[in-house]
Amino acid sequence: MIRTPLSTVVGGAFWTPEATIVGGTRPSFETVMKKLFANGEQGFFYDPNDLSTMYQDAAGTTPVTAAGQPVGLILDKSGRNNHAYQTVSASRPILQRNATTGAYYLAFDGVDDFLQTANIDFTSTDKVSLFTGVTKLADAGKIIAELSPNTTVNAGSFFFVSGTYGGGNGYSSLARGSANADESQTALNFTYLAPDVAVLSVKHDISGDLSSMRRNGVVGINGLADKGTGSFGNYPLFIGRRAGIAFSFTGHLYGFIGIGKLVSDSETIALEKAIAKNTGVTLNV
Amino acid sequence: MFNLSVVNIIPDAHKDAVNQVAALYGCGENNLSVKLVDSNGAVYCGCHSWWKPEDYAVFSDDELRQQVVPAELQPAFEFLYERLVLDGDAQENWQAALSELGLTLAQEEEI
Question: How close is the nearest chain A Cα to the Cα of B102, in Å?
Answer without folding.
Answer: 17
